[in-house]
Write a structure and sequence with these properties.
35% of the residues lie in helices and 25% in strands. With 254 residues, it is of the alpha/beta class. Strand 7, helix 7 and strand 8 form a beta-alpha-beta unit.
């Protein structure tokens, strides 16, 4: 069997804020069209690692990296990397729904318009497709010109997902995407992510271990900036190799 090239190959990768080492020499491969969950207690470096995959940490002036993050074989921290293009290919959805204070239509068309798509029929098509993929089209098709801020919390989060999908990303990064949502909205997002993994690779940081167990194929456990254990989710939750992983999963700390 030919081994598939990982979407991301993270190699001896460390992240510093000034002198503080927030992520310590991580080695991790992310497989295509699967959901990979990153779990661990607060402050363990999960979000920092996630944000490094589309160079969101560049926005923090004191941050610097060592090692490599290969995206489809190319190091994204090379000097000539087009970061705007990278963020188009590797989209991000944050913890708190953050739609722009404009219409549903304007929210989803923002990225395509920046890419130079101006034709209304083409934009209409992209918007319907993205909202359909985000399982939101039926709910908002008659509200496209109403404010995105007028939607419910769960709908706003799906609108943010649609906004990312309109860029046709290869990977979507999710940072605690359901922590601000009610159980029904959370279940909707989880179902959506399981559908989306057929066409997009998904990496999700979550505090919710049940969520990781329900939806992910692979789980990475981080503690104090280190990757303690990585493997298929069933093994991590049922028969972890590392005692620290077991103690965290069984609720003895964290």
């Amino acid at each position: 069997m030919v081994e598939k090239t990982p979407v991301f190959a993270i190699q001896d990768f460390s992240i510093y804020y000034g002198d503080f080492m927030a992520v310590k020499t991580v080695n991790l491969n992310i497989e295509s069209n699967k959901i990979t969950a990153i779990i661990g207690p607060s402050g363990c470096g999960k979000s920092t690692l996630l944000r490094s995959l589309n160079r969101m940490n560049d926005l923090i002036l004191s941050s610097r990296v060592e090692g490599q993050v290969l995206f489809r074989g190319v190091d994204i921290y090379q000097k000539d990397t087009d970061v705007i293009e990278l963020r188009k290919r590797v989209g991000m959805v944050f913890q708190k729904p953050n739609p722009f204070p404009s219409s549903v239509y304007e929210n989803v068309s923002y990225g395509p318009k920046i890419r130079g798509i101006k034709k209304k029929t083409q934009l209409d098509e992209i918007i319907e497709h993205a909202l359909t993929r985000a399982d939101l089209w039926k709910e908002v098709k008659d509200k496209l010109h109403e404010s995105g801020m007028s939607l419910s919390g769960g709908q706003m989060q799906r609108l943010c997902i649609a906004r990312s999908l309109a860029q046709e990303p290869e990977v979507l990064l999710f940072d605690e995407p359901t922590s601000a949502l009610d159980p029904i909205s959370t279940a909707n997002i989880e179902h959506l992510l399981q559908e989306l993994q057929k066409t997009v690779t998904i990496i999700i940081v979550t505090h919710n271990m049940q969520q990781a167990a329900r939806i992910s194929a692979y789980t990475a456990f981080m503690y104090l900036g280190e990757l303690i254990e990585f493997g298929d989710t069933n093994t991590i939750f049922v028969n972890p190799y590392n005692k620290l992983t077991e103690e965290y999963i069984t609720g003895r700390f964290g």
